[in-house]
Write a structure and sequence with these properties.
35% of the residues are buried. The chain is of the alpha/beta class. Strand 21 and strand 22 form a beta hairpin. Helix 1 packs across helix 3. The chain folds into two domains: 48 residues; 147 residues, Hexapeptide repeat proteins (UDP N-Acetylglucosamine Acyltransferase, domain 1), CATH 2.160.10.10. It has an eight-stranded mixed beta sheet. Strands 1-4-7-10-15-18 form a six-stranded parallel beta sheet, with helices on one face. It has a six-stranded parallel beta sheet with strand order 3-6-9-12-17-20, with no helix packed on it.
């Protein structure tokens, strides 16, 4: 086994920076002048670079679009957003490069304070709540909907879409390339291992791994550990 070392966390320990007041006024002005489609077109215009103006414009366009957007948002280049007008974003959120967050016109996407979303993640955010201080690993995916598959005579893609609220509670950590299926709740402080496929609720402070995911332990003493139980 290779040598490892421990270093202090960065994003999780830093206080959320406060944005200058002119950014909020700029966002209000953009919202008053432009439709959501026009704001998304403006967002895309500044979506490939990473200098100060690019970052400012991405942040301001998203603030103009969203239901709520806190201070200290960082949006990396090449991010894809759909129905951002349904988003509620807390303070100190980081959205990594090539992340896709897909909302729905009548849906709700809540992202809490100090959430870090790694590169190339995908969130089917039609009805999703991500709590505070959640780490979302690169390439991890959340599915918020599925086709009913009925009637059987129809192609599955033509059957009704079933949307189920998916919840990631505060302080949880989602590993690289994990998959969270619709309607699942990940409990507070739980760890979802890399590549896990989560089909059922995960208890608070549990550690899960595998496909389908199962409980492999807990982060704190539990009165009845259930190792091997499907999650």
């Amino acid at each position: 086994m290779g040598v490892s070392r421990s270093v202090p966390a960065t994003h999780g320990r830093q206080p959320s920076p406060r944005d200058p007041s002119y950014e909020f006024g700029f966002a209000r002005d953009l919202r008053s002048r432009h439709s959501p489609d026009e704001l998304m077109a403006l967002f895309r215009r500044f979506n490939t670079g990473d200098d100060h103006i690019d970052q400012l414009m991405r942040r301001t366009c998203l603030r103009a679009l969203a239901r709520r957007c806190g201070d200290g948002l960082r949006v990396a280049p090449n991010v894809g957003l759909k129905h951002a007008e349904t988003f509620e974003i807390g303070d100190g959120v980081v959205i990594g490069e090539q992340v896709v967050i897909q909302g729905r016109f009548d849906g709700a996407c809540v992202i809490g304070d100090k959430v870090w979303i790694g590169a190339q993640a995908f969130l089917d955010a039609r009805d999703v709540i991500v709590g505070d201080n959640v780490g979302w690993g690169p390439g991890a995916k959340l599915l918020g909907s599925k086709h009913s598959g009925e009637p059987i005579e129809e192609p599955i893609i033509a059957t009704d879409l079933v949307i189920a609220r998916t919840v990631i509670e505060d302080d949880a950590d989602i590993g690289v390339n994990a998959v969270i299926l619709p309607g699942v709740t990940i409990g507070r402080g739980a760890i979802v291992g890399a590549g896990a496929v989560v089909t059922h609720d995960v208890p608070a402070y549990a550690k899960v791994a595998g496909a389908p995911a199962h409980i492999i332990g807990y982060r704190e003493p539990n009165p009845a550990p259930q190792e091997g139980v499907r999650a």
